[in-house]
Amino acid sequence: MTPARLSVNDVSVRFGGLMALEGVGLEVGDNQLLGFIGPNGAGKTTLMRVIMGIVQPVSGQVMLDGQDISKLNSVQRIHAGVALGQQIVKPLRAMSLLDNVALAFGGSKLLSPLRALSVRSRATEREAARAILSDVGLGAVTDKLPNEVPLGYLKRLEVARALALGPRLLLLDEPLAGLSKPEAGEMADLIAGLPRPGLSVVLIEHNLPQVLRVCPHLYVQANGRGLAFGPTDDVMAMPAVRKAYLGGEG
Amino acid sequence: MAYEIVVLTNMAISILFALSLNVITGFCGQVSLGHAAFLGIGAYTSAILSKAGVPLVVTFIPAMGMAALVGLVVGVASLRVRHDFLAITTMGVVFLFTGIVRKQDILGGEIGIAGIPAPEFGRIGLLVTALLCVLAYLLFVIRIRKSWAGFAFDSIAEDEDTARLLGIHVPRFKLFAFLVGTAGAGLAGALYAHQIRFIGPDSFGFVESISVLAMVIIGGIGSIWGVILSAALLSALPQFFQIIDDFKLLVYGLLLFGAMRFAPDGIDGLLKRLFRRAGGTR
Amino acid sequence: MLLIDLCIQGLIQGAIYALIALGLTLVYGLLRILHVAHAALFTLGGYVGVVVTNGSGSFLLALLTAMLIVGFVGMASYRVIYKPLLMRPPLIALIASIGVFIASEELFRLVFGAYGLSYTNPPLKGQVEILPGISLSHARILVVVLAVGLLSGMGWLAVHTRIGIAARATVVDPAMAASSGVNVETIRYASFFIGSAFAGAAGVMVSLLNNLVEPTMGAVPSYKALAIIVLGGLGSVRGALVASLALGVIEAFGTIYVGHILDRDSIAFAFLIMILMVRPQGLLARG
Q1: Nearest-CA neighbor of B98 among B30, B170, B44, B175?
Q2: Do the chains contact at A106 and B172, CB–CB below 8 Å?
């Protein structure tokens, strides 16, 4: 049996005296799109940050393709194949959309200043960046600066940049937030098309209708605990999940 | 003629010094309020060695090495503290440097080191050497700017956390910037010691650190040509000011204030705005 | 007895630092700017103190005049230096501030002369034995009384008056405070007035202790005040006060025990760097 793409085992996180996460776990297979939902304050972003290595758990482990990556820092995890698209878009505003993505294609040049110094040409990376930008629908604005395009484009840029890192596991933190209804639909379609053999996607989202539409599997978290995990229809049929959503916020 | 040579040599040293800070503050975005300490480390290292009979050009290597070694330590500190905390830490470095020098008899204490031997190749030779050093360093920083190192620095200068998420090993790049920048200051210091031929703790204090930072900011943070231009202008300024020598610092201070108030993006920004207006586009 | 003596000397020095650092902390809390030109206000206080005392014979009048004048000049400094630069990166305001400071040192030299001024008839010279074997001059005692009085007065204002509460709210969240009707500009002017007036008082007291004011007297204590507010956690008033006293005492001991390898001024920065390496966010985080 091949190990899961991502497996999170029994992770707990403490902020001060508060348990932000308590013994949560989930698994993502290859070529999968997992929807990750939960009411506000469920600890979704915290779990993402644990997977990225930005937040250190007090216990538990994170495995990527059967390899324990718990001891790696976030930059090492990125180079091991985990990428994060952030909720709040953070484009580098001094460079074009194209260079924002091309930079992420830098690979080992980004790990060593001396290697970086020895390479001048950005041509291949820009070529690859152009291809990815047109995949996400930004082919016409590659040379614009981030301040010259609307938020919807920056959300796509965030996805493109994460893809450029060549991840095996892509985490997307609320990529639909702040988008209009039609924009959100398009973005969800885009995300639904991403998984392929060698790439799995975890989608954290508040936009429940879109998540239910595109995600075959769901993981639900509430109050820092895992609530449900499985095929979308089964999960949504569970009374505990319905209660969390009807009792909490919409 | 001799006077012009002195002015030009000073100018070359200032350009080298400003370019070196531009790597740390301009390229990598790490504010340093204590860069004169590294000028001082280079100057003292070179002065002591050349008084012991080592040829000037040979002293360049240990001068750069010592400055870079201490620069590496400050670089490691910069991994711990950020922004304003880093600014004040680097300010601390320059006070610490002068404070230590003042108490060391080998370094001449308060009095400093006098009688540094004249360079074996004369005044013109020193000017040529300084210009060659500037040229070599300039080529190196242009290489940084145009290569992937410059690309990575751009992202770190703007937003470290995002740079990290793009897979950039931020600490290594920061240390690299500190190494290159402080080594450049060390080299400028070695030249300075042999140009002035007398050094003391007061030559490498906080005001000197601010002066070089002003050169970088007035030139336009990160802009190589803007920084060269402003370093050349500001280093020649005292010569123009001789008539008003009494008001020198008054004028200098007001100039700093005025530049920040009316042209905060520096010469580089001024030129760009000018060209944009002339071009009529954007 | 040396230990107690050093502690007392250190605390007196710390009280002076606290008076200077308070203004810097207020400005940093409100504007996120390192206000180096604060040093010039401290020096101005010293000059006003000497000139008015020598002219009128009343030290009290001089102290009050100095606080008032320096307070108003401080408000002007906000209007002229910082207000036009608020939308710029903080480094720009920092350099502008340093520029003004450098120019001001020269201005003092041109106006008052390079060699400084002294009190023709220094007041408060009497000594009091506060502990067996330890005497302090009236001037030193006044430093402590003044620091405690002014700082606790400000603490009272911050807790019990509308403007104090509004000021604290503005430090925590300027946008929120502005939207709930706080006039942020008034708060800024008031903070500059208070912070500068305190620095002016410190300037008068230092001029009295040294019986000398000179153009450069602001430089070192004010750089140290920058170190202090960073040490205290930038923007934390309580942190700055703790750091001021700690630094005063550490310097007093440092000059005796490590004075042969480090001069007094670099002891402060050695201490700063050591602390920051352990606690990069300063002694007390903002609060």
Answers
A1: B44
A2: no
pLDDT at C285: 61
Domain-located, residue B131: yes
Q: In degrees to the nearest 10, what's the CA dihedral of A180, A181, A183, A186?
A: 160
Task: Indicate if the pLDDT at residue A249 is higher than 50.
Answer: no
Is A103 near chain B, with CB under 8 Å?
A: yes
pLDDT tens, residue by residue, A91-135: 998 899 999 999 999 888 888 999 999 889 898 999 999 999 999
Q: ipTM value of the model?
A: 0.84
Give the span between the Cα atoms of C78 and C71, in whole angstroms.
11
The dotted CATH code for A6-81+167-247 is 3.40.50.300
Interface subset of A 182-221, CB within 8 angstroms of B: none
Tell me the C-alpha distance between C166 and C186, whole Å: 10
On whether the CB atoms of residues C11 and C245 are closer than 8 A, the answer is: yes
Residue B59 lies in a domain: yes
Hey, which bits of chain C come out as E strands?
127-131, 134-137
Mutant choice from C95, C220, C283 vs B, greatest count of B C-beta within 10 A = C95
For chain A, which chains pass the contact test of at least 3 CB pairs under 8 Å? B
Find the closest chain B residue to A99 by CA distance: B151
Q: Is residue B282's pLDDT more than 50?
A: no
Task: State chain C's mean pLDDT as an integer.
Answer: 87
For C128-178, the pLDDT digits (tens) are: 877 787 888 888 888 888 888 888 888 888 888 888 888 888 888 888 888
- Which among A92, A117, A161 is the nearest to B144, CB-wise? A117
Q: Between chain A and chain B, are at least 3 CB pairs below 8 A?
A: yes
- The total number of structural domains that make up chain B: 1
Q: What digits encode the pLDDT tens for the residues C58-94?
A: 889 999 999 999 999 999 999 999 999 888 888 888 8
Domain of residue B126 covers 2-238
Average pLDDT over residues C227-239: 83
- The DSSP bridge partners found for residue B195 are none
Q: What is the pLDDT of residue A250?
A: 41
pLDDT over 90, % of chain A: 48
Is B149 in Cβ contact with A103 (below 8 Å)? Answer: no
- The pair of structure tokens assigned to A178 is 């702040």
Q: What share of chain B is helix, strand, coil (3-state, %, to 5)?
A: 80, 0, 20
- 3 state DSSP class of B113: strand
Interface of C with B in 219-238 (CB under 8 A): 223, 226-227, 230, 234
Q: Which residues pair with A201 in a beta bridge?
A: A33, A170
Does an H or E element contain B169, and which? none
Examine residue B197 and state whether it is found in any structural domain, yes or no.
Answer: yes
Q: Residue B280: what pLDDT?
A: 45
* A57 Ramachandran zone, left/alpha/beta (phi>0; psi -120 to 50): beta
Distance CA B215, CA A229 (A): 60
Comparing CA positions, the residue from A229, A157, A237, A232 lying closest to residue A6 is A229
Q: What is the largest CA-CA distance in chain A?
A: 59
Q: Does any domain span residue B244?
A: no
For C147-182, letters b (16+ CB in 10 Å) and e give beebbeebeebbeeeeebebbebbbeebeebeeeeb
Per cent of chain A over pLDDT 70 is 98
Please say whether the beta carbons of A198 and A182 come within 8 A.
no
B105 touches chain C (CB under 8 A): no
User: C265 Cβ partners below 8 Å, 6+ apart?
Assistant: B95, B99, C220, C223, C224
Q: Which residues does A140 contact at the CB level (< 8 Å), separation at least 6? A: none
In chain A, CATH 3.40.50.300 covers 6-81+167-247
Element (H, E) at B249: helix B248-262
Strand partners, A173: A204
